Amino acid sequence: MKLSALDLGIVLIYLLATLIFGFWIAKKANTNIKSYFLGGNTIPWYYLGLSNASGMFDISGTMWTVTILFVYGLKSAWIPWLWPVWNQVFVFIFLAIWLRRSGVLTGAQWITFRFGEGKGSRLSHIIVTIFAIISVFGFIAYFFEGIGKFAAIFFPWDMSATLGPLSITSEQGYALVIIGITTIYTIKGGMWSVVGTEVLQFFIMTISCFVVGYIAYTSTTGEAIQSATPAGWDELFFGWKLNLDWSQYLDSVNTKIETDGFELFGLLIGMMIFKGIFASLAGPVPSYDMQRILSTRTAGEAAKMSALTILVLYIPRYLMVAGFGVLGVVYLKPEIAQMGASIDFEQVLPMAMEKFVPHGWRGLLLAGLLAAFMGTFAAFINAAPAYLVNDLYKKYINPNASEKTYLQYSYVASIALVIIGIIFGFLGNSINTLTLWITSALYGGYAAANMLKWIWWRFNGYGYFGGMLAGLIGSTFLPLLFPDTAPIYLFPILLIFSLAGCFAGVLLYPAESDEVLIHFYKKTRPWGFWKPVIAKIQELDPTFIGNKTFKKDSFNVVVGIIWQMSQVVLPMYFMLRHNIGITISFILFLLTTYLLKINWFDRLDEEEKLI
What we know:
Helices cover 74% and strands 1% of the residues. The chain is an all-alpha fold.
């Protein structure tokens, strides 16, 4: 693709401005590790919410989402339930409040808060740190694959090189340069740099989304979209089977559906709901989302921040996704068919951008999509070193070092994690493969132990260690044993495997001490199976009341999932000119917003008073 001088100028100005801002704000971050990793718990929640939304708007994920919309149409709105995307609803309804009350620096440090200082807790502390680091490697590889594919289409320079036995393609060369720039400003400025640049990036991306939506809406018609897609492509709901036949339109799409393993769509959705409940109850994984929660000032602000992330993210993002998707199905099928055996559906977004976005706007959009990548990548690079420095080096090796030493080790840890993650990136073969492994296998192994840690008093540190260890082993080897099975269908086996590890630890070792359990419950106040602990607290304080919000939280979660889903399908219906769908989804959005206000938002002050 040829970029005009104006396009290149916009992109280069953006990259330069990001670096300058990262260095300018670095003074705020270089006070101590709490300031570096959490912004000193002084950053306003609305900035953190915009930052979190920006961090979730990554280029690799956007390319994947455009791909699945091209292939599956409106039904693609369900496929991100693989994560599941509605774990964010569980977070803002109650988990963000529970997590923020701990006052810790990282998810691994939270383990000590939950299980105390015994051997089981130390083992659990180490294994959750290992999980955090492994997941970061997986995500860096995922980012490396996506940004390289994207950048090589737009920038005019050949970035291929040969370094001894290593041959670097142009895609990989671009990925190395962009990752290098992002790593520099993230290391220098810490959480302050990440949040500041991501707020700027959020506004660039939002403008870009509306530009793409306008171009797509004015370049297509409902009739053109319908004639270019098979029956059922524009329908949200489904039966047991997908029943989407592309034979008359683009035969290779049927091969893609078969490869994904999504033909039994009803079974797929059922499995995603089954897995999603466990994964959502487990809470945020130890990455940038958890760091945003721990960075807020109060538990109530943590909940507001998490809700704002959903509110500002989905409508703009899916306007862009739907825009690129419909441009692809209407105009790009000939170009895709010409790829032959080497067909790559992940190229739909950059191909549509090249063909339909005019110069000037193309530079802004390219800067926005680079911002999307850089924001997400920066968030991971800020979160991950905290586990190495705070949870390994400070806790086990040198607990009395100076703050300057910890900050220096944070810089080194960031660079080391990026280098190892890039090595994994050289081994990755596609965004889709990495996405399915991370969402269905790796995170699936996280679910059992991290669900039980919240809801069951008898669950101990050894049980947590056993469950996490079994989950890591299972997520590594089950996909190798069943290479032709979509990872989501392996989740029940992985769950059983993980639960076996959990219960082995519970049966072989005693519960944590009353002191640890009482301290945890009084400060966190989760619902679940805590009756013996509540009784012991009430012996000391007869006025104490345990958490009785399970029914209210469950209702709000269902309402919140509908609220989130309405924001996903509304821009998709708009792009397809489905007036009935637009009306219903908009009414649902207004109704669920009102219900969440009166049943959740207006009661956040009550949660603050419990501490």
